[in-house]
Fold this sequence. Notes:
Elements: E1 12-16, H1 21-33, E2 38-43, H2 46-55, E3 64-68, H3 74-80, E4 86-89, H4 96-101, H5 103-123, E5 128-132, H6 143-161, E6 168-172, E7 177-178, H7 184-193, E8 198-201, E9 207-209, E10 211-212, H8 213-226, E11 232-235, E12 239-241, H9 242-249, E13 254-257, E14 269-271, E15 279-281, E16 285-288, H10 297-304, E17 309-310, E18 317-318, H11 328-336
Parallel strand pairs: 1-2, 1-4, 2-3, 4-5, 5-6, 6-11, 7-10, 8-13
Antiparallel strand pairs: 9-12, 11-16, 14-18, 15-16, 15-17
Helix pairs in contact: 1-8, 3-5, 5-6, 9-11
Amino acid sequence: xxxxxxxxxxxxxxxxxxxxxxxxxxxxxxxxxxxxxxxxxxxxxxxxxxxxxxxxxxxxxxxxxxxxxxxxxxxxxxxxxxxxxxxxxxxxxxxxxxxxxxxxxxxxxxxxxxxxxxxxxxxxxxxxxxxxxxxxxxxxxxxxxxxxxxxxxxxxxxxxxxxxxxxxxxxxxxxxxxxxxxxxxxxxxxxxxxxxxxxxxxxxxxxxxxxxxxxxxxxxxxxxxxxxxxxxxxxxxxxxxxxxxxxxxxxxxxxxxxxxxxxxxxxxxxxxxxxxxxxxxxxxxxxxxxxxxxxxxxxxxxxxxxxxxxxxxxxxxxxxxxxxxxxxxxxxxxxxxxxxx
Length: 341
């Protein structure tokens, strides 16, 4: 999967937000494939931890530890990061409408929480930290996206903040995760299973990038292994048209246009035009370099010289101008294994 000698085997790993869709799949994958020395599930929802421990118990998986805590609680994070080698930061307040109605809560989790993760990682001499971002952080039009953009900037700048400490930080950004909680496929499948024949569509021209949970986990594992520190990694993904998804799910179903929701984009953007000037094409993914003077360009370029190249001209990486699209067969294969919500 990677060309790096850095391995997760024998490492102590902490995952914030580990009871969410990504976090749980990441934990399952690491336990199955990477033989960690210790794997800490860090989240604030004791019910989700209880349910997760029913399937992934410490008795069956001795490396597992369940740690109740909130990224807003700096002291709790300090304790959780003790003797940890790798942190994957997946915790976030993600609901767009809830964030707009409760802005201070969103900022406390997504911004202050991010800084708390940074401080705890540096104080405990953690080796590597990868933070999960979102397409909504690119040219944000809602508070959730704005807080995640702020979080991205904090994690990138943390490489300078770390000073003489060994801790290095990177960010992974990708778009819509098929089958995750809150995604459209389980929602549409539930409506169809309930006998509804008219599906709600916000806009007929809407497009989305597509990534599965397993692909997202694999990309984060790869980022941990290959990161230098300071980079923002964006996978190259296929796009789909929401109208194609509706047709594939049920050729006889009709649809109703309900209008674009507040804070929603018609197309997903993962690399804005202005940011692409610092973009390196790595073949199957892009890397955005910081533009600041403290960014160690020479060290970074020495790592990627064999397969990376600077993009020839500025561009916008958006789901509507993508060169890779899922056809009906690929969409059908993708959604076949996703259960109804």
